[in-house]
Model the fold of this input.
Amino acid sequence: MNINEYLRLIAGTVVIASTLAAVYVDPMWLWLTGFVGLNLFQSAFTKWCPMITLLRRLGVNE
Done:
């Protein structure tokens, strides 16, 4: 897998997990869902994503 596939996998997993946590634990978990969405939105304009920076440091292939 390349770095973009890892990014999509991580973002999707966090969105699903936080949505389930909001339904079954506490609605405040929706803030995490919104945070992920906001990061994806800003990365479309700034061409910078914090998770991609972290994945590069971990040695994930481009």
Remarks:
- The mean pLDDT is 96.
